[in-house]
Structure to design on (237 residues):
């Protein structure tokens, strides 16, 4: 998570920058079209926050690291920030319910239940995971990992979604850093919080191409924001 104290105001969502709002492994599999888990590691979850992805795939024997500046905080503080976020998300979803496809979750109540499940699994793994290096307090675009340390890097609900908080130059620097530490990068979603395609995406893809990076937009088996059905995949040719 980046710039947690910078305030942004949107017509429907009013959040304190990038907030702790985690997802489950099954959601990651849908976001990133991960048909299988065995063999994907070592994998990096960049900006994972209180997601349970690292905890769940680690329990399946996958080498995984989650990186986020919020990991500098104790678990109880992360949980308290989650509760603040839950209130803001409830208010925002109530105002913006028409912008979502509820086919995957069924209702807002299910969304909140899954977020709490993710938080609980994350917290149950957090202290042990920190001790073994599974949770690293670090922020894009400067990651404390060696070149090519990971086979795959994932960025869920950070880049592009928070385009009003994180500017174009940040996105380019972040993508270059992810490609430094991983052979392949996948990013989802590619829409802003306001429900529109990110204005940063075309320029980021051009900049990556000029840097020798191959980029593709690929359909994924998931849609919550209406129209947000693609992920960005980037790799060096």
């Amino acid at each position: 998570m980046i710039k947690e104290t910078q305030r942004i105001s949107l017509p429907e969502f009013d959040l304190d920058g990038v907030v702790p709002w985690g997802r489950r492994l099954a959601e990651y599999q849908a976001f990133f079209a991960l048909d299988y888990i065995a063999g994907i590691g070592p994998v990096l979850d960049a900006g994972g926050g209180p997601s349970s992805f690292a905890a769940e795939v680690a329990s399946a024997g996958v080498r995984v690291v989650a990186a986020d500046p919020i990991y500098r905080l104790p678990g109880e503080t992360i949980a308290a920030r989650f509760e603040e976020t839950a209130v803001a998300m409830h208010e925002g979803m109530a105002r913006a319910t028409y912008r979502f496809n509820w086919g995957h979750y069924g209702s807002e109540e299910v969304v909140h239940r899954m977020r709490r499940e993710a938080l609980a699994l994350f917290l149950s793994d957090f202290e042990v995971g920190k001790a073994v290096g599974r949770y690293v307090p670090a922020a894009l675009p400067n990651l404390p990992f060696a070149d090519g340390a990971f086979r795959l890097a994932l960025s869920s609900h950070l880049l592009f979604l928070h385009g009003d908080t994180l500017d174009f130059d940040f996105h380019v620097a972040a993508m270059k850093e992810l490609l430094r530490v991983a052979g392949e990068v996948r990013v989802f979603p590619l829409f802003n919080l306001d429900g529109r395609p990110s204005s940063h995406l075309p320029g980021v893809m051009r900049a990556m191409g000029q840097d020798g990076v191959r980029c593709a937009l690929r359909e994924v088996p998931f849609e919550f924001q209406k129209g947000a059905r693609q992920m960005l995949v980037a790799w060096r040719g």
Remarks:
- The CA atoms of residues 160 and 190 lie 5 Å apart.
- Confidence is low (pLDDT under 50) at residues 1-10.
- Residues 108-131 form the longest helix (24 residues).
- Helices lie at 25-31, 53-59, 75-96, 108-131, 168-181, 201-210.
